[in-house]
Amino acid sequence: MRYRPDVDGLRAIAVLPVIFFHAGLDAWSGGFVGVDVFFVISGYLITSLILAEKLEGRFSILTFYERRARRILPVLFCVMLVCLPFAWFWMLPYEMENFSRSILAVVFFVSNILFWRQTGYFATDAALEPLLHTWSLAVEEQYYFFFPLAFLACWRLGLRWVIGLIVLAGLASFAVAYWGATNRPDATFYLLPTRGWELLVGATIALVYQQYRDRSAKWAAGQSINQVLSFLGVALIGYAVFRFDGNIPFPGPYALVPTLGAALIILASSPEVVIGRVLSHPWIVKVGLISYSAYLWHQPLFAFARLRSVTEPSEVVFLCLAISSIVLAYFSWRYVERPFRDAQRITRKGVLVFVLLASAFMIAVAIAGIYTKGFTKRFPREFVELAVSPSDRGAYVVARHTELRKALGFSNAGKKKLAVIGDSYSEDFVNMIGETGAFRNYEIRTHYIHTKCQLYVGPEDEAQAASKVNRQACRENDEERLRRLVKDADVLIFAASWKDWSVRRLPQTFQNLNIAADKAVFVVGAKNFGSINLRRYIDVDIETRKKLRNVVSEQFLQTNELLPSFVRQGEFIDIHKIVCGAKARDCPVFTDEGKLISHDGGHLTKDGAIFVGKKIFSQSALSQFN
To answer: Do 192 and 222 contact (CB within 8 A), yes or no?
Structure first.
């Protein structure tokens, strides 16, 4: 197989945008598409290698997997090992437990499945996962497990049949990705069935090159067309890197842009064209050679920096860390990757022993971390009680609200009826009711509207105000049930994390819901307790906790101040004024007993629901229902 330095140069073009994207640099908002470029490159190179060896009659499936192990595992285990002490000293118990799960998933190449179940790629907390980026390695290794076996099984049919079947499989994968990008975005982003087509694009290029090699030679000789196509390929990748962001449905049709860009460069690049010469520049090739190591190092560096900092690190810090990832990549490439890839220096048996021992060690660490709930004995007992995992927090927030919305409507039990309507802040409100015993003689029903959709009923398509990836879910909101609850309830409470656009349309929403003039209506303002970083409170005594206050979001304050003027039917309940003070730009972090009010600055803990609930149901118009 002929070595192509321009393809190594293309690796550099792939890895740098990913690094800058994970650094949070706004200009590189679509840098995540570098992974798509990697997929095309991998599909092309692996298929070319298998095909060349198969035609020469020397392909061995055992040797293939050995090469993959030499290439992937040593530096991967090296990075994971370096992560361990930082995780031990800097991670909270639930973070350490999640990290342990990710270690286990990485060892078995199923981290894409873990992160699919655990967090969205573009979610805020995803940036705190040191091994988040290994999802793409899992996709590739799953592909490499199945592809050679399927390739060998189809080989006897002939190369044309192989090409046809691969194209068919790629189209099927793309069709699923097209549907899933808007209907099942997280699964579509992470899983092989919706990512496989990108690898198969690269595989198709390799096979077509071989099948039509005479025509390929003539094609390669056509410098003018290749100049145009290679520039077009770079333009497509550049457009995706700088114009895409996390709000587009991906990987659906949008993924065609960087994928076809990479394909065009592989097809048209050569020493005779400008792009080929640029990509073959020694310095760009060197970055490409260490791109795998750079990819592995950058995310742990960024994640631990975020974990350690009270606030988001500056761009300068991230740029320094990005440079550090390149430096570390050079050393791990030279002293880990290269030696292990040299069969003369490290035998097959040596690789096998290393992989087994490293895997056993990592599995043992992971199981210990999971079993001990993140090595909780590292921290004082009082702090462990404070540092509740996001899953447990979320379970508390949603439980009551979810149970109450199971019914289609109210019963005819003779009780007065209360409907609580809104997003996750309405879930908080239901918890305040439950913890304080308010509305005790009322039959309560709830209706959930996702915060990304906002509380709006009218002729406009509210889904258009949501990001593209969430629009379908917004359109599926059960407006018929909402109208029925509004009609039947004696008391209506609307609670949400309001946005300016939905606030301004609040009178229109009420009008379109046909709310009777004599119905008791309450609009609850949003709440915000500032940025919560539990690490700040590890060594803080209870008396000091009681005095701590956080500056709240300016955007929140502006929206909250806007709300009263648009509440033209019913009464406005200003949580911020009641809990934090009429003119306050900050809010308490802990209750009067030193208990945490909110884990994330917005949603209430159980203690927070009691604390805020008591104030709301004694110091507002809602006191009549206490």
So the answer is: no
